[in-house]
Amino acid sequence: MALFHVRMDVHIPHDLDPEVRAQTVAREKAYSQELQRSGKWRELWRIVGQYSNISIFDVESADELHEILQGLPLFPYMDMQVMALTRHPSRID
Ligand SMILES: O=C(O)CC1=CCC(=O)O1
């Protein structure tokens, strides 16, 4: 098990066809909800006032995360920052 904190900043071009945009966003939603149901996409939060999110992934490896992120329908329109997480020694649970 490996935990990752991911920030995704979405930059869809303003001239993208509105139908393509709507279809891509709908496919993104379905893809992320399937991964949320599987437990791999553990947290998904909107950053207030930005077309950005903070996510926590619970995956087997960095390679698996890479595959998941590359499969995002919005991947071509995103900047991402990934941080690998490990357990803090002061945690009590
Ligand atoms: O809207 C976003 O932040 C991009 C996104 C990630 C998963 C999803 O459903 O939308």
TrEMBL record:
Catalytic activity: (S)-muconolactone = (4,5-dihydro-5-oxofuran-2-yl)-acetate
Gene Ontology MF terms: muconolactone delta-isomerase activity
Protein name: Muconolactone Delta-isomerase
NCBIfam families reported in the protein's UniProt record: muco_delta
Annotated GO biological process: beta-ketoadipate pathway
Encoding gene per record: catC
Complex formation: Homodecamer.
Organism: Dietzia natronolimnaea
Its EC number(s): 5.3.3.4
EC primary class: isomerase
Lineage: Bacteria, Bacillati, Actinomycetota, Actinomycetes, Mycobacteriales
Metabolic or biological pathway: Aromatic compound metabolism; beta-ketoadipate pathway; 5-oxo-4,5-dihydro-2-furylacetate from catechol: step 3/3
Family, similarity comment: Belongs to the muconolactone Delta-isomerase family.
